Amino acid sequence: MKEIFPAPPAIVRNEYESVRELFARNVVPSYGRFEIVLSHGDGSYVFDVAGKRYLDLGGGIAVNCLGHAHPAITGALVGQSKKLIHVSNLYFTEPQGRLAAEIVKRIGAGKVFFSNSGAEANEGLFKLARKFGHDEGRFEILTATNSFHGRTLAGIAATGQDKVKKGFEPAVPGFRHVPFNDLEAARAAISPATVAILIEGVQGEGGVTPATPEYLLGLRALCDEKKLLLLMDGVQCGHYRTGKFQSFQRILEGLPGGEKFLPDGLSMAKSLGGGFPIGAFWVRAPFADLLGPGTHATTFGGTPLACAVALKIFEVIENEKLDENARKLGDWILNELNRLAEACPTVVKNARGLGFMLGLELAEKIPAFAPGDKSAAVQFTNRLHALGVMVIPAGTQVIRLLPPLNLKPQEAGEGIAKIEEAVKSLA
Ligand SMILES: Cc1ncc(COP(=O)(O)O)c(C=O)c1O
Fold this sequence. Notes:
- Helices cover about 35% and strands about 20% of the residues.
- The chain is an alpha/beta fold.
- The strands form four sheets. A seven-stranded mixed beta sheet has the order 4-12-11-10-7-5-6, sandwiched between helices.
- Helix 4 crosses helix 10 and helix 11 (about 320-345) packs parallel to helix 13 (about 410-425).
- The mean pLDDT is about 95.
- Pyridoxal-5'-phosphate (PLP) binds near residues 200, 204, 235 and 269.
- The site of pyridoxal-5'-phosphate has 15 residues, from helix 5.
């Protein structure tokens, strides 16, 4: 294992309890956390305070695209921090301009606004849509059932899952949900107030469900016909996770009309900074100047430090062809998961996904799982933790694999062997 600098402090026996105690006393308990206290990471692995090693197939929920403690990220952070960490957006800086150009190059003609998180990137898209429809009194955004768009007030209003809204009513007005991958439902839901449709290319929190090519192409035509903005949330499924920069580029690959497809707005975050917080939204050229001076801002948006890291990540992904790795190794993992589903149908219902955004849906009733407040997905995840593998639950029945884009074949093999062990122990 490579040397860690500076060396982590010596592990004391009661470190787990003392950290738990600090949290219990001082941290708002809004997260359902697993009983693991992490101390450091190295590549595709993380280590807890007792020294136990986990293969991290969750990647910080699709964030750590180059794994942990990647020297290129450390180098970019150290190098840029010696020059300029932050200045106000009252001024221009080169890293922000260059990063915007790299994003535009990978999507299409348009412009980019930088934020700090995915929820905030989506907030920008909501404001873009409201500005677009303002003079005609249009403001309503249609989103999909089972979608997830963040935890701000507008984010939970946009999210098509009741569990995130409960207790925070009244909801921000102007959002309605329609079934995902159902073009006719979207058409039927359009009202005179509708201004935009927002979808994820691959629903993540909702359980790893890719949009169909017909749905994407149909929504584009529908939005053109009804003068609506087509907005996409690429926060989780973007940044080469599917094997292409954006999921729609993978889903529509090689299909007639696919190469011309573009949304009007697209949000991103998570892997864009590989763990350093940065979000962004891209706006297609005709609408790129809608948010003029004074209409939208954030103190930390596009700092030189965040942009230097994001630029370096683009460079590593391109030089090491990590898009191809996500596609090829992702295909291999999906095949293996499908093999498990066939071999153990009483435990695994199916496997699905694209590239390194994969979901394993567990069977409805697994006898070995205790009924109670812990979902099947959480109980299965606990079993994998015991075996030294991290995955991310999605809903009650699905576990997600969102590994770093530079995952190695032997690491994928190790992950599959452990998942197989967990599945077989339940069969
Ligand atoms: C599709 C999608 N949109 C938005 C968000 C919110 O991003 P953040 O947690 O950075 O605010 C998430 C987070 O999981 C997400 O998966």
